TrEMBL record:
Species, as recorded: Haloferax marinum
Protein name per UniProt: Halobacterial output domain-containing protein
Cross-referenced InterPro entries: HalOD1
Segments forming domain Halobacterial output: 8-75
Length: 100
């Protein structure tokens, strides 16, 4: 699933909303995001610079609530359920389609 952040939506809020949508659960029923990553630090990574100019580039991936999440440029989230993201033992090299 791909999720585009709203103009005033924080990255941490977007992560919780997107995961709840993928899993079909209420956001409050999910494990706290703070158990995995500091929400304030996550937001700060993608906030504009002190002079107000936007940060460009940047990518962060982590696992939260059975989802593999990638944040690109603080604008887009890509989510994949862990059960859909695995490697066959015969694979020799890691790829974007598996977790090692």
């Amino acid at each position: 699933m791909e999720y585009e952040l709203g103009p005033d939506e924080s990255v941490s809020t977007a992560v919780v909303r997107a995961v709840s949508a993928v899993e079909g659960r209420e956001p409050r029923s999910l494990r706290p995001l703070a158990d995995v990553v500091d929400p304030a630090a996550l937001d700060t990574l993608f906030d504009p610079r002190y002079d107000g100019t936007p940060r460009t580039g940047g990518r962060l991936s982590f696992v939260y609530n059975e989802c593999y999440i990638t944040i690109d440029n603080g604008e887009y989230l890509t989510l994949q359920l862990l059960e859909d993201r695995f490697c066959d033992e015969r694979d020799q090299e890691p790829s974007d389609s598996c977790i090692w």
